[in-house]
Design goal:
With 322 residues, the chain is α/β, with parallel strands linked by helices. It has 2 domains: 3-252, P-loop containing nucleotide triphosphate hydrolases (Rossmann fold, 3-Layer(aba) Sandwich); 255-317, no CATH class. It has 6 helices and 13 strands. The strands form 2 sheets. Strands 7-6-5-1-4-3-2-8 form an 8-stranded mixed sheet, with helices on both faces. Strands 9, 10, 11, 12 and 13 form a 5-stranded mixed sheet that branches. β6 (130-135), α4 (142-152) and β7 form a beta-alpha-beta unit. α3 (104-120) packs parallel to α4 and α5 runs antiparallel to α6 (234-252). The longest helix has 19 residues, at 170-188. It is globular and about 60 Å long. 38% of the residues are buried.
Length: 322
């Protein structure tokens, strides 16, 4: 029987921090054969409130069948028992922090709750693979981020700036936590857990803009990957295969158009029909010194949407007359 990794990763944070948005962005950016649907599961405490889950199938990585389940717990004080239940045997955590200044105390309270609930299972947060995502950076100032970072006291956890609604920083956080979880499970052995027996309610996930690479936090805030792992070890090989699987899935799910000078747009492949219109536009980013990339979502006459990145290069203008 082939070896398997079945990992549960919780996206933790206050109400409105962007946990469910992360799951929807990931759903929109992975190849269909690598992910299921974002599902809503009613909580046992209040059936009108749900937690959300996204299953990911990475397939055979180095002889190990790898599955992930991404879970966004419900917010609110009354849902603390549900959050506690979802933390049972969790394999990794992405702490999604709302970086707006007026949310500082709520973020700290959420982190304290996380520590306390894990403690009820006899676990320490420092022993669980953890990534911090500083979300809503488009709505906050750098001084608020510095204060939040200092008070959260990361202790070596990787951290990424993010604007989840645009896709920025989402895939970087996912790839990093997945690698750390795979390393941890290969070192310690996966915890045996039974899947939750709850009825799933399918939820459509709208396609979002192509994710933009983030420059991340200032170097003093970023934590490097662990140097304690032998680069040639089987564990590190699994982590590298996990990262490569995500990169391939993201690449295959997104088309890239390159335009130089006054060249016309190349024809789109796939099943686009009739006239296309622009549904969404992401933030432009520089690609080297001579090109700019703009993430787009196009919609055809049937209402089908597809993500792509439009790259405009200045190379064709070299030598042009003034």
């Amino acid at each position: 029987m082939s070896e398997e990794v079945n990992a549960r990763i919780l996206y933790w944070g206050i109400e409105g921090a962007g946990k469910e948005t992360n799951l929807k962005v990931i759903h929109g950016k992975l190849r269909p054969d690598h992910r299921g649907e974002v599902e809503a599961h009613p909580s046992r405490i209040d059936p009108s409130t749900a937690y959300h889950e996204l299953p990911i199938e990475l397939g055979n990585l180095g002889g190990v069948h790898t599955r992930l389940r991404l879970i966004a717990p419900p917010p609110g004080p009354e849902q603390a028992p549900t959050r506690r239940q979802l933390l049972d045997r969790v394999d990794g955590i992405v702490f999604v922090a709302d970086t707006r200044r007026d949310k500082l105390d709520e973020n700290l309270a959420s982190l304290n709750e996380l520590r306390e609930l894990l403690g009820e299972y006899g676990r320490n947060l420092d022993e669980v693979p953890l990534v911090f995502q500083y979300n809503k950076r488009d709505l906050s100032d750098p001084f608020a981020l510095e204060e939040l970072h200092r008070k959260l006291d990361l202790r070596g956890a990787a951290a990424f700036e993010a604007v989840a609604t645009e896709g920025t920083g989402v895939l970087e956080a996912l790839t990093t936590i997945s690698k750390r979880v795979v390393r941890h499970l290969r070192e310690q052995g996966p915890l045996e857990s039974e899947p939750a027996e709850l009825e799933a309610v399918a939820e459509e996930s709208a396609p979002l803009v192509d994710p933009l690479p983030t420059e991340g936090l200032a170097p003093k805030l970023l934590a490097p990957e662990s140097a304690d792992v032998d680069p040639g070890s089987e564990i590190e090989e699994m982590a590298a295969l996990t990262e490569a699987a995500f990169e391939d899935s993201f690449r295959d799910a997104t088309e890239t158009l390159e335009v130089s000078g006054d060249s016309p747009l190349p024809a789109l492949g796939g099943t686009a029909r009739g006239t296309l219109e622009i549904a969404q536009v992401g933030s432009a980013r520089a690609v080297g010194a001579r090109a700019v990339a703009v993430p787009l979502v196009l919609r055809d006459e049937t209402g089908t949407e597809r993500s792509l990145t439009l790259t405009v290069s200045l190379d064709a203008l070299d030598g042009a007359e003034d």
